[in-house]
């Protein structure tokens, strides 16, 4: 093992007073909080924490510019984490350069996504998707812990123990800092609850303000990073305990994977490739083995070599990676051959290729171990090479180089053109709803195709406004046999009420045993029962028409005066709380429409709002 000497920060950063580092981290946290607050305000039209049922506001700058807003939001949330972690360990000029590069990279991810995707109608401003956020976190974490040890060692490739020390320590720091922020807010809510008991709402109002919540969160995170950095020995102790516990899970996971692979010849491979979950499960198992092998290996110091069971489990697990990744690649190849590329399959393929790097390197490390060479030593070079490959793959996937959406569109159109998929089977919905602006442009091109069937279907898909409409076939409406429980339980529900129906009939939503209750009541006093259908937050009325068929009359919408804490209508039916209530005052016909009176004694807030809105 190469002697790396002292792994503490290089002399210049180490001489920086801890007080100055702490003040810098707090300043970064405060600036981050202020930026987050500004972005929140711009996206909410100057109003904090918009209610879910509020009308969409007029977006202020920069939220009115989706590309700029997405870039600023992602850079503001992600880049300061790099600055917090590198402060005191990196020269200030390198810290400034690295912070700008990090902000530019993740900001570019957000800008590229905003340029190509379309924000849903329910979203007031464009916000980066979950895959983009996770990719930003991953690339910053990996790149930072490739760069920092190299700068400290003043070498292009640092000694492996330096990579191990910085990366695992940072992982523990991030976990503890996130837990600290969670505990901080838990205590704030607890304190607000205590004051609310005695009628003081000031603290509750304060923590609900965005100008307080955003800076308080980022400042507490920055403080946690600094506190964990000051207690360096404590962090290393926590890391040691965590790695020790994880390493003893390695024999368990190795045994499970080995048993799985041994069972395959007896069960067959057909079940592995019936859905995408099998590939994801095998890649997840491979990732778990990689983490556990590293937990056992740690920095490779011979003096810290693990117990004998772990020394045998690590090479066995390393050898098992190859069949796992090979099966995942095989499954992906089969599905791509059958159904073509999709963004999810491209990302899974990228993960499998990175897994192949690990499998090859770890397999060689296992072979070297079995030949009585240094125990799992080639693992070190593999980890560095795989980390570099992770950075390159993420840069390619979330940029124009290998944009999964663009590649998927081109592949699907090519399959349609060469006849691998028919016009009837082609996934037009993918272009309409999942492929962003490029997909909609491609769908428009198909609507002008020389193939009449392709053009007709593409034009029909262009007319679909919401994805839920795809479930209703316009030429052959699919019916559902409702599953409805009677109330009282011994009551008999009319058989014709349970006949197959289709949307928009509310009975079509009664697809499980506990979804709906029905109760017979004579609501209009004509001697014939009507039926009340109770779902979670609504009650629907059905009555027989002149021909004796059950027809939908309407919905009782308001189950409480406020939109929140609405009771479960099914439970109200069981409690006997759904009973007819005659109106004292009749409806008025206003402009040819029936207008019911808003009862001030029942819903005074609603009545006051109606009076206030009256010109």
Q: Care to describe what's here?
A:
By secondary structure, the chain is mainly alpha-helical. The chain has 20 helices and seven strands. It folds into five domains: 231 residues, no CATH class; 150 residues, no CATH class; 68 residues, no CATH class; 95 residues, no CATH class; 33 residues, no CATH class. The strands form two sheets. It has a five-stranded mixed beta sheet. A hairpin with an 8-residue loop joins strand 2 and strand 3. Helix 3 packs parallel to helix 5. The radius of gyration is 31 Å and the shape is globular. The N terminus and C terminus are likely disordered.
Secondary-structure blueprint:
Blueprint: H1 11-14, H2 18-43, H3 66-86, H4 92-116, H5 130-153, H6 160-197, H7 202-207, H8 210-230, H9 232-247, H10 250-267, H11 276-297, H12 308-339, H13 343-370, H14 379-397, H15 404-418, H16 428-434, H17 436-447, H18 452-463, E1 485-486, E2 517-521, E3 530-534, E4 539-544, E5 550-556, H19 569-574, E6 588-590, E7 593-595, H20 604-613
Parallel strand pairs: 1-2
Antiparallel strand pairs: 2-3, 3-4, 4-5, 6-7
Helix pairs in contact: 2-3, 2-8, 3-4, 3-5, 5-6, 5-14, 6-8, 6-9, 9-11, 10-11, 10-12, 11-12, 11-13, 12-13, 13-14, 13-15, 15-17, 16-17, 17-18
């Amino acid at each position: 093992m190469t002697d790396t000497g002292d792994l503490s920060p290089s002399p210049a950063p180490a001489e920086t007073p801890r007080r100055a580092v702490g003040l810098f981290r707090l300043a970064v946290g405060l600036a981050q909080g202020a930026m987050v607050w500004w972005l929140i305000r711009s996206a909410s039209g100057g109003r904090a924490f918009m209610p879910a049922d509020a009308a969409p506001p007029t977006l202020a700058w920069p939220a009115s510019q989706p590309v700029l807003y997405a870039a600023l939001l992602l850079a503001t949330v992600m880049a300061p984490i790099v600055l917090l972690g590198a402060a005191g360990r990196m020269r200030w000029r390198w810290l400034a350069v690295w912070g700008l590069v990090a902000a530019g990279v993740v900001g570019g991810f957000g800008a590229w996504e905003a340029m190509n995707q379309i924000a849903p109608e329910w979203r007031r401003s464009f916000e980066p998707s979950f895959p983009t956020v996770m990719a930003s976190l991953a690339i910053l974490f990996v790149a930072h812990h490739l760069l920092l040890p190299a700068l400290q060692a003043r070498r292009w490739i640092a000694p492996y123990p330096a990579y191990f020390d910085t990366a695992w320590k940072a992982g523990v720091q991030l976990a503890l800092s996130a837990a600290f922020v969670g505990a901080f807010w838990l205590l704030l809510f607890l304190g607000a609850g205590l004051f609310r008991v005695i009628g003081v709402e000031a603290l509750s109002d304060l923590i609900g303000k965005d100008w307080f919540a955003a800076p308080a969160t980022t400042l507490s995170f920055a403080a946690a990073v600094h506190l964990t950095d000051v207690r360096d020995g404590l962090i290393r102790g926590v890391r040691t305990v965590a790695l020790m516990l994880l390493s003893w899970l390695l024999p368990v996971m190795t045994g499970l994977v080995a048993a799985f692979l041994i069972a395959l010849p007896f069960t067959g491979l057909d079940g592995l490739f019936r859905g995408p979950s099998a590939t994801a499960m095998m890649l997840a198992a491979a990732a778990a083995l990689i983490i556990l092998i590293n937990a056992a290996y740690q920095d490779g110091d011979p003096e810290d070599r693990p117990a004998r069971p772990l020394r045998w489990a690590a090479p066995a697990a390393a050898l098992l990676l190859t069949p796992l990744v090979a099966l995942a690649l095989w499954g992906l190849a089969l599905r791509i051959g059958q159904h073509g590329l999709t963004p999810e399959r491209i990302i899974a393929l990228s993960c499998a290729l990175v897994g192949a790097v690990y499998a090859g390197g770890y397999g060689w490390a296992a072979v070297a171990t079995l030949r009585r060479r240094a125990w799992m030593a080639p693992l070190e070079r593999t980890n560095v090479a795989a980390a570099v490959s992770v950075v390159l793959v993420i840069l390619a996937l979330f940029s124009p180089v290998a944009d999964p959406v663009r590649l998927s569109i081109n592949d699907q159109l090519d399959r349609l053109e060469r006849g691998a998929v028919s016009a009837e089977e082609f996934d037009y919905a993918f272009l309409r709803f999942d492929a962003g602006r490029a997909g909609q442009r491609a769908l428009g091109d198909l609507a002008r195709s020389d193939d009449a069937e392709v053009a007709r279907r593409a034009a029909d898909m262009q007319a679909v406004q919401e994805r839920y409409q795809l479930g209703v076939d316009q030429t052959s409406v699919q019916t559902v046999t409702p599953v409805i429980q009677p109330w009282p339980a011994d009551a008999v529900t009319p058989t014709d009420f349970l006949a197959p129906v289709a949307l928009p009939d509310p009975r079509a939503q009664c697809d499980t045993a506990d979804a709906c209750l029905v109760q017979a009541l004579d609501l209009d006093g004509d001697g014939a029962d009507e039926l009340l259908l109770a779902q979670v937050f609504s009650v629907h009325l059905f009555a027989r028409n002149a021909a004796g068929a059950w027809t939908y009359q309407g919905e009782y919408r308001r189950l409480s005066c406020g939109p929140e804490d609405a009771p479960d209508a099914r439970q109200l039916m069981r409690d006997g709380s759904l009973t007819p209530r005659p109106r004292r005052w009749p409806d008025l016909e206003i402009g040819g429409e029936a207008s019911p009176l808003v009862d001030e004694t029942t819903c005074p807030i609603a009545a006051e709002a109606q009076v206030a809105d009256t010109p």
